[in-house]
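Archive transcription. Copying these from loose printouts into the bound notebook so they stop getting lost. Printout 1 of 2:
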Amino acid sequence: MVDEMDYTAKSLPELVSFLDGMSEPRIVMDSDYRIVAANRAYSEAFAPNLPVAGRHCYEVSHRFSAPCDQAGEPCPLRMSMESGQVHRVLHLHHTPHGEEHVDVETMPIRNRAGETVFFVETMRVVKQASGHAVAEGLVGSSKRFVQMLALAMRVAPTNATVLLQGETGTGKELVAKLLHEQGRHPNGPFVPVDCSGLSEALFESELFGYEKGAFTGALHRKLGLIESARGGTLFLDEIGDVPMSLQVKLLRLLESGTYRRVGGVEPLRSEFRLICATHRNLLQMVEEERFRRDLFHRISTFPIRVPSLAERREDIPLLADSFLKRVAGESGFKLMPDAIQMLKQRDYSGNIRELRNLIERATILADGKRIGACDFDFEELFPALPENSSASAAAAFVIEQPVPLDEVERRYLSWAASVVNGDRTALAERLKLSRRTLFRKLARRD
């Protein structure tokens, strides 16, 4: 590696020759932001058939006329000059394919006297995210999106457990895939698990697997999802929906690093990278005793908040064009300015997922290839159910046949929670219960 070599006795040609054999794009710069030399990987990735030696780095990468720190962006070269240390930032760089997110790391090179004479800058393109409209992957260039992406790139090469937090539909699974593909074992399996779909009866058999004959119907050995994730990443989506009774089993797995198949006696090692995600406020759930405090701290080594669409409205035109490519391909559809303006002003309870649905719906309903704001007027075609509709879950509480009393309470609590739209404080007041008693009953219900 470059940072492990002593360049104090090496000349510039030898340094450039060494960098030329490396697969990652690298350039050598002086303290005036001028590119002294570039390796083949840099020329191919950022400036094919274009000489860069003698040009300023900000001129090539950003098309700026001044250093990026003077244009409101953090400059790793400036930071390295001031501190004499390695510095790393996430930038948007111009490439032959458009603007791309690039993880930039700058390292000072010193001579025998300990004086900094050059800087080596290493560029790593974030292939799973783009700053221009693309047909797949993460898309965005807003400040909040770039901050989230920078954190993801920092933690991706480590084995740290990551907790992705954010509203439903913000793209948490795409971020999880980025962490996997930028991690230490990108060729290993990526195994997503929907925790909200795991009942207590299925939890152990699905996650841990089972041996033949472990229970009625176990006609053969079944590998669990944990075993399937060996050498890769286990992604526990909606971990906030795991009932308290199952959280202790999950904690035991994470703490001990071992598990047994159902019906088995041999302990097996768990060898996977763990990434969790939730749209719930886990810290609040901990205070309400609906989520184990020890499990929360075990899974939140490195929390990353995935921003909602309301926090990155400037990305909406980019996202809309990307979704147009994804749902319509090269069919020639185009969003008109009034449509873009309307989409930017709209509120999105479903975030990015809702925006994609709107784009796809408009391509189906538009008579031509030019999609205007009028093509998003869906209210008459797709009316929402009225709040007092008999189809509403809150319309009535009905028990069709005699059931155990604890089952009646469980169903009643679910119905009552829907009546107050999930407001637990209001629910406690309506039921004449203390908050603690209500939370305890809800935990048993889950």
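Printout 2 of 2:
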Amino acid sequence: AGNHLWNKTYGTGNDDRAYSLVQTSDGGYAIAGYVTFSGPNLKDFWLVKTDPVGNHMWNKTYGGANDDWGSSLIRTSDGGYAIAGYTNRNLNYNFWLVKTDVAGNMVWNRTFGGPNSDGALSVIQTSEGGYALAGYTNSYGAGVYDMLLVKTDSTGNHLWNKTYGGAGSDGAWSLVQTVDGGYALAGYTYSYGA
């Protein structure tokens, strides 16, 4: 009925944000976003695991010397997690996909993108066990920014990518696999419509 039951906070006292949430097999929750350690430019992917009433169980961080933002979280078929977002490498952002085990330990990670800014905002595990990521790109496509769809195999190796958009700025916020095996992307456009 939408009545408030409980709430919990997690963080360092700096700029920490959650962008995605899943319920876990034990009835708890896993939350992904970013954590800021100190200053404005030290953000890392952050994964927080709780029990069923939101009590903190463990957390993990993933990232390098520059900013890394986690945007989308899923539970994977092996019981682990996949987090997609963007990572700052050489002063430009790229798609970043991090795969973990059930305890949040990183198993592998992959980056995708070009010489300009690209960011992943949604990830799914596909029917054959690979991954699909959607977001925005300034490196490829027809416009200032376009939607970018990246497909990988089960260990995150790049298989193909496609862009969608027009002359303006376009990007994808959400992605699903459809019953015919294709994909549907939803987001925003400055190229079409009113």
